[in-house]
Amino acid sequence: MTRAVSTTLLLLFGFAVVLPLLWVLMSSVKSGHLIVSSPWAPPDLSNLAVENFSNAWSKAGIGRAFVNSLIATGATLVFLMPISAMAAYVLAKYEFRGSKAILATFLGGMMFPHFLVIVPLFFLLRDLSLLDTMTGLVVVYVAYSLSFTVFVLTGFFQVLPNELGEAAMMDGCGHARTFWRVMLPLARPGLLVVAIFDAIGLWNEYGLALVLLPSAENRTLPLGIANLTMTQQYQSDWGALFAGLVIVMAPVLFVYWIFREKIHETMLAGALKG
Question: How far is CA 84 from the centre of its chain?
């Protein structure tokens, strides 16, 4: 009985997740008139409105926003992951005065609403001539994501056996070489999972980008979609709007599909160790 109830609930949950995705995908290749008149009807396979994607990509500026989001997310991860890994390794493997307080500070940073610092950040970046630049946004994104990344990676490093590091140091490795050559490769599954979660969060981030990137040329993808939503409501080009939503979702779904097994294995291993 319990198994049947669990299976039913999982099926309902899966249906609730998959149905909106399928509806958005179908609507992205339908004309605006067909979307309004028959929103649940399947698209006409002989007359797919593939021009919706070109309209969203070029005319609505989603292409430029896509590239900006790609640059911002990629550059943030390049700086975020090494810095977070080094900080997490020190907090996990070295006992020193104030280490627990530092870790608690990172935990507190996760609970601090970022919209409370948007106004000071705006004036700070303006004074540093970094306002409305990808460099300024990447710096803010690194600081914004540091708390979560360090806190999670600390848990991954804590479960790694200390004997491996001690053996490496007995063989002549220093602290830095032990980290880069021994401990960091062992934590690679955790790094991958955290990087994926960070990338998804940065890809969908809206509030900071809205304030720190006022010009249309530097809009990231969430800002582009918001602008597309407002403009297409007046133009009634609903097909381009749904095509833009597909463009936003596709990279995230693709990355998760590629690394789904690694994510599941890592999360299961963490649950078993916990």
Answer: 16
Residues found in the chain: 274
- Count of other CB atoms within 10 angstroms of residue 267: 13
Q: Is the pLDDT of residue 19 over 60?
A: yes
Interval 142-190: pLDDT, tens: 999 999 999 989 988 988 888 888 888 888 888 888 888 888 888 888 8
238-258 vs 2-27: helix crossing angle, rounded to 10: 130
Listed in sequence order, the residues at least 6 apart from 226 whose beta carbon sits closer than 8 Å to its beta carbon are 206
26, 255, 261, 157 alpha-carbon torsion, rounded to 10°: -150
Q: In the prediction, which pLDDT does 141 show?
A: 95
- Asked whether residue 273 carries a pLDDT value surpassing 70, the answer given is no
Nearest to 209, CA basis, from 85, 72, 112, 58: 72
pLDDT at 71: 95
Question: Tokens in use for 137?
Answer: 């946004």
Task: Give the Cβ contact number of residue 109 at 10 Å.
Answer: 17
* Whole-model pTM over 0.70: yes
Q: Where are the domains of the chain?
A: 1-49, 61-273
Which structure tokens are listed for 79?
A: 């700086």
CATH for the stretch 61-273: 1.10.3720.10
Residue in the structure block whose two tokens are 């249906």: 15
Q: Roughly how many angstroms between the first and final C-alpha of the chain, as a whole number?
A: 29
Contact 72, 220 (CB under 8 A): yes
Helix axes 99-110, 62-93, angle to 10 degrees: 150
